[in-house]
Every structure is written in structure tokens, then in C-alpha cells.
Specification:
The chain has helices at 2-11, 21-27, 39-49, 58-65, 69-72, 89-114, 118-123, 125-146, 174-192, 199-208, 216-234, 241-253, 284-289, 298-306, 312-315, 335-343, 352-356, 368-381, 385-409, and strands at residues 149-150, 171-172, 268-270, 316-317, 349-350, 363-366. The protein is mostly helical. It has a domain at 2-214. The strands form three sheets. It has a two-stranded antiparallel ribbon with strand order 1-2. The protein starts with a helix and ends in a 16-residue tail after the last helix. The model is unreliable at 1-34 and 417-425 (pLDDT under 50).
């Protein structure tokens, strides 16, 4: 298994156990013979490689999330079955492969940039800073899922001139990866606060940046918000506790130097503009709805009803024969009864207009609601209950506004009114 994982991390392809070195060589031409790319093209290409895991897609929702995280956090309802909490091999290996496909493309960007003359390296610095921020975001998600992973030397086949044996990566310890990311994110945040970009380079950057459209302030907010997320993740670990407390306080107390995402207009996301391009959410419908993957969980529905949560009608819709009643699936319920309730249309489902049939649903990387919840947790740990309450309420308000916004992006009207409006009390 480790041999297989090493090869996946090295070349970002699925290789069978029977593959020979000759098979591998034939499938991958000598990197020295390939056509040259550019920083701009490789930057956009690397970002695009990972879009299946960013934009709502069939692959990500049906193959990966449906039988893994969605079960563990009760985001969906399902009929009980034996082995339901044991992820299938495809769900794990497909996501792993996708990450290392992206890593290989990111390393190629590093290689291209490193080969430039010193002056050009400086001019294209903005590409490398922002690419690394995104790389760290993708890395953080993978480390949280797997722990130790091949990282610092992964995806180096092209950089090593096609030398396969020299490109076999070792595993990096999760805590070392987190330390590196925290160190570099702070340095990059400081650098972005003073960076000056050549006007001609900036035009190319804006054209190739499919995430923040060349908005450097948004990249600063992304870097600092990601730092806040990572610091929060490790805040209870003895080796990181003091650092997390200090640096979280530094970020939250100094918004001028370390701005974070504070409102939905600052959200970091891939926006869908044209359905005829590859940047769309056309696979969301089958990804979420197939095999009843869009059923609501009892825990979520009950909580939202008990708290008169205005998001209920934007996120969910009643079952097709349930009238106006919202009911979710009890994960401890009898499987036969649950199956009958689902097939009979009695279980609430994720709102088709807002979500699964909304082809303009963006690929959200970080948003104001998440960042405000991270801030609320930090304030609570620091004993500042008033600030924690304010941040928490801002998070909920931002989340409500965002779901209303998602609803209004949709061109499909399978549930409710076409235009949704929420007026805060």
C-alpha cells in the first residue's frame, strides 16, 4: 500500500500493482521533450486541476462525500446498512489521487518560475505567493483527513528531469506540515501587504486568477483567514497551544495588518459566470440527488425547526408528499421504515432550487460565516464572552444572507418563489 501511495504522490496517476517501470515510462514522456509553458498558463492550469473538489461536482458529492464526511457529520439522512461508516476504496483513493494530480501541476509552476531570470522571478512573484496560499488550503484539508502525507518532495518528477527513483517522496509529519504552513502564511501575508506588481504582469494575473480575479486584498484576507483556520485546528494541541493563542490574538486585534474575511462580498470562491465553460456546477444535481443522497438528517431539521432558523426553507424543502412538513431521517431508525419514508416522499430533501439544480452555485473556499465562527471560538477561549456572542451572531447573519444569495443565483425553480428575500430582525 505504501509503495502504491508513493507512486500516486509522485506522478498523480492510478497505477495497478502489476505496472512495470517500462509501462510507467511509456505513459509519461521525458519532461525535457515537452512544450514549454508559461507562469500565467501553468498558474491557471494548476488551479483548474483541482476544481472538481471546489465546484460542486458529481465526482465530489456522489463518489467522495456521500459515503464519508456526510455520514460522519450527519449532513444527510440515509437508511442504515451494515458497514455504513467504513468508506469505500474509491471514495478515499479518488480524493487522494485528485490532490496529487494538483500537486504535480503546482510543482510544474514552481519549476517554470524557478527557470526564469531573476528579474522575471521578481515580476511574477504575485503568482507564486497566491498559488502557495491556495496550495496550503488544499494541503490543510488533506492533512486533516489523512494525517502524515507525502508533501515537501511530492510531485517532483518533472522538476527532477524524469528521474523516477529520485522523485519518490517520503511522508511528512502532519505537525511539521502545519508548522511550515503557519510560518510561511504569516510571511506571505506580510509580503502581500506591501507588494507592488508591475502593471503589465497585473493584467495577466487578473486574467488567470479564477479565484479572486486578481484582487490582492482578497488574497490577503484569504491568507490570514486560512492562518486563523489552521491555528484554530491545532489550538488544543500542547505543541501549538501557546502559538495559536498568541497568533490568533494578533490577527483578530490587527485588522489593518492582518485583514480577514468579514462579510460575504469578501468571500473567497470560484464564481460561475458562463455555463458553456468548464467552470460550472452542472454535476451538482446528479452528485447530490442520485441514490437519495439529498435526504435531510433528523438532527439538522430538528435543530433548525426548534430555533426557527430562517435558513430552513432555503437549504431544505419538504418531501414530495409531505405537504409543508419538514422531517429528517433518524440515523438510528429502522432501515426498512426509513426506506419506506424516503421512497414515499415523506422526508425533506436539500432544496433543489438553491442547491442541487443551481448550476451557478459557486465553489466556496472560505466565507465570512466560517471566519466569524473561528473568531467566536477564539474569543470564547479567551474569556471574552461579549465578543464571542457578537462574532457568532455575525456568522449566522452572514450564513443566512449567503444562502439567500445562492437561491437568487439559480435559474431552476423547483421549489418556492423565484426571488428570495430575507429581512433581518
Amino acid at each position: 500500500m505504501k509503495k502504491k501511495i508513493h507512486i500516486l504522490a509522485l506522478a498523480a496517476v492510478v497505477m495497478g500493482a502489476s505496472c512495470t517501470k517500462e509501462d510507467f515510462s511509456a505513459a509519461y514522456p521525458n519532461p525535457a521533450s515537452l512544450s514549454r509553458s508559461t507562469v500565467e498558463k501553468q498558474y491557471a492550469g494548476a488551479l483548474n486541476t483541482s476544481m472538481q473538489g471546489v465546484l460542486p461536482s458529481y465526482w465530489n458529492y456522489f463518489v467522495i462525500l456521500r459515503t464519508t464526511l456526510q455520514y460522519f457529520n450527519q449532513a444527510v439522512g440515509w437508511s442504515n446498512y451494515a458497514g455504513q461508516y467504513v468508506p469505500g476504496a474509491a471514495a478515499i483513493s479518488d480524493r487522494w489521487n485528485n490532490f496529487y494530480n494538483y500537486v504535480a501541476q503546482y510543482r510544474e509552476l514552481e519549476k517554470i518560475h524557478k527557470a526564469l531570470p531573476a528579474d522575471d522571478q521578481a515580476n511574477y512573484r504575485i503568482f507564486m505567493l497566491t498559488a502557495k496560499i491556495y496550495f496550503f488550503d488544499m494541503t490543510q484539508k488533506n492533512v486533516d483527513l489523512h494525517g502524515d502525507i507525502p508533501w515537501s518532495k511530492a510531485g517532483m518528477l518533472s522538476a527532477n528531469g524524469g528521474d523516477y527513483m529520485a522523485s519518490l517522496p517520503a511522508y511528512d509529519a502532519a505537525d511539521k506540515i502545519y508548522t511550515t504552513m503557519l510560518d510561511e502564511l504569516k510571511a506571505m501575508a506580510d509580503e502581500l501587504s506591501t507588494i507592488t506588481v508591475n502593471p503589465g504582469i497585473l493584467v495577466g494575473f487578473r486574467n488567470q486568477d479564477i479565484i479572486n480575479k486578481g484582487d490582492i486584498m482578497k488574497w490577503r484576507r484569504y491568507a490570514n483567514s486560512l492562518r486563523l483556520r489552521i491555528l484554530t485546528r491545532v489550538s488544543d494541541a500542547p505543541a501549538f497551544s501557546a502559538r495559536a493563542t498568541s497568533e490568533i490574538a494578533s490577527i483578530l486585534s490587527n485588522p489593518t495588518q492582518y485583514p480577514v474575511i468579514s462579510q460575504n462580498s469578501e468571500n473567497v470562491q470560484v464564481t460561475v459566470l458562463d455555463l458553456s465553460t468548464g467552470i460550472n456546477s452542472g454535476g451538482f444535481r446528479t452528485g447530490l440527488e442520485d441514490w437519495n443522497g439529498n435526504m435531510a438528517s433528523k438532527r439538522m431539521i430538528d435543530h433548525m425547526k426548534a430555533n426557527s432558523d430562517p435558513r430552513l426553507r432555503y437549504i431544505f424543502e419538504p418531501g414530495l408528499t409531505a405537504g409543508t412538513t419538514y422531517d429528517g431521517v433518524d440515523p438510528l431508525g429502522d432501515a426498512t421504515v426509513t426506506a419506506q419514508l424516503i421512497s414515499g416522499g415523506k422526508i425533506a430533501m436539500y432544496n433543489r432550487t438553491t442547491l442541487s439544480r443551481n448550476q451557478f452555485f459557486p465553489g466556496v473556499l472560505m466565507n465570512a460565516a466560517e471566519v466569524q465562527l473561528l473568531a467566536a471560538e477564539a474569543y470564547l477561549k479567551a474569556g471574552n464572552n461579549a465578543a464571542a456572542k457578537t462574532a457568532y451572531e455575525r456568522a449566522i447573519a452572514a450564513s443566512i444572507d449567503q444562502y439567500v444569495g445562492f437561491r437568487n443565483l439559480s435559474s431552476r425553480w423547483n421549489s418556492g418563489l423565484r426571488t428570495a428575500v430575507w429581512i433581518p430582525r
